[in-house]
Amino acid sequence: MKEVKKQGGLNAEIQSRIGHQLRAMYDDVVRQGVPDRFAELIRKLDGPEAAAAQIDETAKTDGRD
Amino acid sequence: MPLTDSLRDDILASVPSLRAFAISLSGNGDRADDLVQETLLRAIANIDSFQPGSNLPAWLFTILRNLFRSDYRKRRREVEDAEGNYAKTLKTQPAQNAHLEFEEFRNALDKLPQDQREALILVGASGFSYEDAAAICGCAVGTIKSRVNRARSKLSALLYVDGAEDFGPDETVRAVIGGNGG
């Protein structure tokens, strides 16, 4: 792997921009909170058996290749 | 441990960051939410194996990461679809310039090898320690550090340094650039 060899200052500035962009992308999704479908899903599952049953059901009806 | 109300609340509280992780990994909003749903189902189905007092977010991220990787093996990454679907997940459209910069960043992130991308996201965005990230990825702490460093180095080369072509797009990306999508 080729390393980026630049003046320390420039490299630090680039790294800080990359860190900022990465967090901006990520935090944008975090700020959307919990979509209703997930809140409902967690609320309606009584326990492990109910979750396992839904996994089986999804596997059966899943139309993906 | 049993699925108590407080455990339900804690799982729910992890959903926003699980979604952010899934979207950052897959670049595809719809698929990311499927991954999150599957993660929640598997977590609850296996809740008895969760150790009370241990790191719940790290446990959930491990499940999601493993699901993503097994899914990845089954079907090729849908690079051509990444941008459009990700943009749809944004509540507010960024201003034009910011949007271009964002797309450029997203494209560069997609060009990283998967090992490096997940390490960078876990440490640089999710805020996990190197130790937690290593546990999530099932590798040594030193391996995570080196992947994060290589990811940062490659991103700076792709985004900010001339001659980024030296690294070359991978085959899938090249196919998309060549208009061979769909």
UniProtKB/TrEMBL annotation, chain A:
InterPro entries: NepR. Residues 15-47 form the Anti-sigma factor NepR domain. Pfam families: NepR. This is Anti-sigma factor NepR domain-containing protein. It comes from Bradyrhizobium valentinum.
UniProtKB/TrEMBL annotation, chain B:
InterPro entries: RNA_pol_sigma-70-like, RNA_pol_sigma-70_dom, RNA_pol_sigma70_ECF_CS, RNA_pol_sigma70_r2, RNA_pol_sigma70_r4_t2, RNA_pol_sigma_r2, RNA_pol_sigma_r3/r4-like, WH-like_DNA-bd_sf. GO terms for biological process: DNA-templated transcription initiation. Keywords: DNA-binding, Sigma factor, Transcription, Transcription regulation. SUPFAM superfamilies: Sigma2 domain of RNA polymerase sigma factors, Sigma3 and sigma4 domains of RNA polymerase sigma factors. GO terms for molecular function: DNA binding; sigma factor activity. Residues 15-77 form the RNA polymerase sigma-70 region domain. Residues 103-155 form the RNA polymerase sigma factor 70 region 4 type domain. PROSITE patterns: SIGMA70_ECF. PANTHER family: RNA POLYMERASE ECF-TYPE SIGMA FACTO, RNA POLYMERASE SIGMA FACTOR RFAY-RELATED. Belongs to the sigma-70 factor family. ECF subfamily. This is RNA polymerase sigma factor. It comes from Bradyrhizobium valentinum.
